[in-house]
Amino acid sequence: MVKFLKIVNAFIIVLAILAGSIKAQDPPKLPTNFPLFTDGISSAPYLVTFPNIHEFHKVRGSITGNSQGTVHVYVNSGATEQSVFLEGVVYNINYVDVPLRTSVNQQRPQIKPGEVLVEANTEKFWPQGTAYTRREIVQFGCNDDGTRCTTEGFRYRENGDIYNVNEGTFNPKGNGHVHAGGAHLDHSLVDGYTTKMLVAPDSEKCLPYGCTEDPTGGWCPNTHKVVLSDEPNHAGCASDCKISNTDAACCRGIHDHNQCRASSQHFSNRCKNSYAYAYDDRAGLRFCKEVPDVIYHFFNMDLDCDWAVIDPDTKELSADSRKCLNRLIQTPA
What we know:
Layout: H1 2-22, E1 46-50, H2 53-65, E2 71-76, E3 84-92, E4 97-99, E5 110-111, E6 116-120, E7 132-139, E8 165-171, E9 182-188, E10 192-193, E11 197-201, E12 209-211, E13 225-226, E14 236-238, H3 240-244, H4 247-250, H5 265-270, H6 281-284, E15 286-288, E16 294-299, H7 319-329
Parallel strand pairs: 2-16
Antiparallel strand pairs: 1-6, 2-6, 3-4, 3-5, 3-7, 7-8, 8-9, 9-15, 10-14, 11-12, 11-16, 13-14
């Protein structure tokens, strides 16, 4: 990490020296609160908050046109008055990790109801073409600075965390990988399910994924319900692995990729577009051959339509499901 910081600092110095000569080529300035890139120039990685998704759409073209790598748009859809707090990290093939924190060292950026948090230029953290992975969970019930979250009670349980996790491995264009320009994506319930999450790449060629079932619903087996200390009812649902901690349920030991049998059927039945257990590649893993400019991440939503119906003829999202997603994305006509 020290070596990484030296590289970053050197980059900032060079950027400052060259600023005068390249000023005319700089993209429009946007507010930035990445800890090491706070000069307001959007040619470096940044997080920026918009009051609503309409304001994002007004400058979407500027952001995507000047971003190196996919732009990630995190949306608190505002079904309740609850803020969500993003806890994420991106790391490259050498495990140089970058937590998604703000310039005031906020551990978890807050997204208030209706607000949008945008992450862009992520691929600037490493040499162009470097493959990288990202993992994100959502916390809530936190202080405004992202600390002391109610949902931290899902962490360090007897058999480990039970958060549902959004995961993605990206191979930028031109990096020589067989999947260059693409990404493998999944919404993992291998540990458990604690909050609704829907991820929608902005491309008809990349299918949406996630789960929008209520994690506190009666469908969760009584044996798998997880109660937080200050909640009268269960607040999350654990996987078979976290409850039994056996090699068979957790796909350990002799239960490898070829031998592991499906577990956590309560997830497979209710969250058909998520990764229910280790090695659930067939049902849960998404491959996006050409990653679009924008990937939307929705939280705190209350949908009355089915966003995941596949047209049997085209193998693409049905027209009705596309309309359902477009209601969330609210793309201008």
